[in-house]
């Protein structure tokens, strides 16, 4: 019997690897440009002919390679970027698999020119289908130029498989845009069939977005920023009314690497819920930065997929960050108060930004607004139908000041700036005077919203403040529920509960979230357990959110009927309108109802 197993020749092994890494001209663009970024380039130029089918060239001014490294770079699994298995968990470069150049050189004709600063001459290497054709010293500028000609010339089946030039060029542009977005501090140029179609100077991210996508993006961007111990998020999101029916302008970068994630996309879309029509997609460019040990990017050769060790936290933090951005930018509608009201925003500056509801505001904003207040208020519809003669009669059409303070930065001091009037009726409802009418608020539901935001934030930031109990309480639970307690222990600790277990496996409540009331600890925890049990079937990714909601509902019960003093009332109103969604409670119930002059008139009849 002969032995049947043979080692594949390198050229074939490379071609097989190329099947994964090099799918089309755009893949070459991605790999070459990423190499230039990794090489510390400050200027990267991409030159393509016939959508990359004739040639793709990337020129950079990065650190270059020694003559020896230049040869090595075409070996498979040759990389300067990692050297041991542990490095895989601390990756800060774009490349690391050492496959790209070897793969590309196996399916094309490649010419590499590279020179380090300290070398006099540059190394020129020519490869064709993995075969070395030339290796010389020539004069060339510092940095690296790689020219890839006739991609797939030696694999006709793959060459024929390429799509039309416009389609392949679209893919190239996608890669170019992603890399340009991720590196605004680097200068880029794109030359397409001898014409420079992009010339991007060094700039800030916002300007880079505008340069890439067009001037109209200037108005639609809202900055987003959130920092927690686990992850920091930075970037821009688009105003809801600019959402498009087509996808393609949604970008996630994790540690500066473009990734695709339907899970993260879902988190963003959930923050836009009710603000954009179904089937439309808002623009976003979001950078997530976290310790590389928390992620695994080695799941796919093209490295556009990623695994997080704690997906749920990322989801919750991202969702909260987008909601905050939308509400801080008044993209989630806020109501107008008397025009002379001044509130301090978190930075201490007095805000006087006119709300979006001015008469010349674009229709889509009103649509978004209307969606939020669906069934609540028909002002705008009525106005559009012509039923309201004078637009100024419309409660919401006067430019006015809107509240900007963040719920968690509100302090008693800022109540001195409030000069809207608020009063309580039946120990249950608040009546607030607005410039064109009045607003009725259900106080319990308002507290639910505010507490929910607070608890969600505590969960995300893992910094719930705990209030120690003088007399620890025993948590009376069915032993069968002990696993449930263990499952939610992390979350309830983050919220501020202190739980300990004694030798008999009894849980003792040592502390409760600040602001909840000591006597309620046992009740609240039992309530959470009960509801978690009932909802266990669909706990899923919103585990923490549910716990926050349950706790908020429980904690708000005591406000069902409760006499509030004046400061509490104005604080409640302010905090509500600084919350992530002043219109709906976390249970999806309407919190407040506004009445304009016409409606009040009608009520009286
Ligand atoms: P990887 O990027 O995964 O390390 P590649 O096959 O893309 O693998 O590149 C192999 C090696 O060649 C890199 O590790 C790097 O040392 C070198 N290299 C490639 N492109 C450049 C460049 N533009 N400038 C400097 N060095 C480069
Ligand atoms: Mg590479």
- Provide the CATH superfamily of the largest domain: MutL, C-terminal domain, regulatory subdomain
Q: List the ions, cofactors and other small molecules found in this model.
A: adenosine-5'-diphosphate, magnesium ion
Can you name the CATH architecture of the largest domain?
Answer: 2-Layer Sandwich
The major beta sheet can be summarized as: 8 strands, mixed
What report would you give on this structure?
By secondary structure, this protein is α+β, with helices and mostly antiparallel strands. The protein folds into 4 domains: 10-200, Heat Shock Protein 90; 208-328, Ribosomal Protein S5, domain 2, CATH 3.30.230; 361-395, no CATH class; 396-605, MutL, C-terminal domain, regulatory subdomain (Ribosomal Protein S8, Chain: A, domain 1). It is built from 17 helices and 24 strands. The model is unreliable at 333-418 and 537-541 (pLDDT under 50). The structure holds adenosine-5'-diphosphate (ADP) and magnesium ion. Magnesium ion binds at residues 31, 34-35, 95, 100. Adenosine-5'-diphosphate (ADP) binds at residues 31, 35-36, 39, 60, 62-65, 73, 78-81, 95-102, 144.
């Amino acid at each position: 019997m002969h032995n049947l197993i043979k080692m594949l020749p390198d050229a074939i092994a490379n071609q097989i690897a190329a099947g994964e890494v090099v799918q089309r001209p755009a893949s070459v663009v991605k790999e070459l440009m990423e190499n230039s970024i990794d090489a510390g380039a400050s200027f990267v130029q991409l030159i393509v002919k016939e959508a990359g089918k004739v040639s793709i060239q990337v020129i950079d001014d990065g650190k270059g390679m020694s003559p020896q490294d230049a040869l090595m770079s075409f070996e498979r699994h040759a990389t300067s970027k990692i050297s041991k298995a542990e490095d895989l968990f601390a990756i800060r470069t774009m490349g690391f698999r050492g496959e790209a150049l070897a793969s590309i050189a196996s399916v094309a004709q490649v010419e590499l020119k590279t020179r380090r600063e300290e070398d006099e001459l540059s190394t020129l290497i020519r490869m064709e289908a993995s075969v070395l054709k030339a290796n010389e010293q020539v004069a060339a500028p510092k940095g690296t130029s790689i020219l890839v000609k006739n991609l797939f010339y030696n694999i006709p089946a793959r060459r024929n498989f390429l799509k039309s030039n416009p389609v392949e060029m679209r893919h190239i542009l996608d890669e170019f845009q992603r890399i340009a977005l991720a590196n605004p501090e680097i200068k880029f140029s794109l030359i397409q069939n001898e014409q420079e179609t992009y010339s991007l100077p060094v700039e800030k991210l916002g300007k880079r977005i505008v340069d890439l996508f067009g001037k109209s993006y200037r108005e639609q961007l809202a900055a987003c920023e959130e920092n927690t111990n686990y992850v920091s998020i930075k970037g821009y999101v688009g105003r809801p009314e600019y959402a498009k029916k087509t996808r393609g302008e949604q970008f996630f970068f994790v540690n500066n690497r473009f990734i695709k994630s339907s899970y993260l996309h879902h988190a963003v879309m959930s923050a836009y819920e009710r603000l954009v029509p179904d089937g439309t997609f808002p623009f976003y460019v979001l950078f997530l930065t976290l310790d590389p040990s928390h992620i695994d990017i080695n799941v796919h050769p093209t490295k556009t997929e990623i695994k997080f060790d704690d997906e749920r936290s990322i989801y919750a933090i991202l969702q909260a960050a987008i909601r905050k951005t939308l509400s801080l930018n008044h993209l989630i509608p806020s109501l107008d108060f008397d025009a002379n009201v001044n509130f301090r925003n978190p930075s201490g500056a007095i805000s006087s930004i006119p709300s979006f509801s001015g008469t010349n505001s674009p229709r889509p904003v009103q649509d978004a607004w209307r969606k939020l207040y669906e069934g609540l208020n028909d002002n705008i519809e009525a106005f559009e139908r012509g039923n309201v003669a004078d637009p100024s009669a419309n409660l919401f059409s006067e430019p006015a000041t809107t509240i900007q303070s963040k719920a968690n930065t509100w302090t008693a001091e800022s109540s001195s700036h409030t000069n809207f009037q608020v009063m309580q009726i039946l120990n249950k409802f608040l009546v607030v005077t607005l410039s064109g009418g009045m607003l009725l608020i259900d106080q319990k539901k308002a507290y639910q919203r505010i507490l929910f935001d607070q608890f969600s934030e505590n969960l995300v930031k893992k910094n719930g403040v705990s209030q120690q109990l003088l007399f620890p309480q025993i948590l009376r639970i069915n032993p069968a529920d002990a696993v449930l307690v263990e499952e939610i222990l992390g979350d309830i600790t983050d919220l501020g509960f202190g739980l300990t277990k004694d030798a008999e496996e009894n849980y003792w409540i040592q502390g409760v979230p600040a602001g909840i009331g000591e006597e309620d600890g046992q009740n609240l925890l039992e309530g959470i357990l009960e509801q978690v049990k009932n909802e266990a079937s669909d706990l899923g990714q919103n585990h923490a959110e549910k716990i926050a909601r349950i706790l908020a509902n429980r904690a708000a019960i005591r406000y069902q009927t409760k006499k509030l003093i004046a400061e509490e009332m104005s604080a409640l109103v302010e905090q509500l309108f600084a919350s992530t969604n002043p219109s709906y409670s976390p249970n999806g119930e309407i919190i407040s109802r506004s009445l304009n002059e016409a409606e009040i008139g009608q009520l009286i009849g």
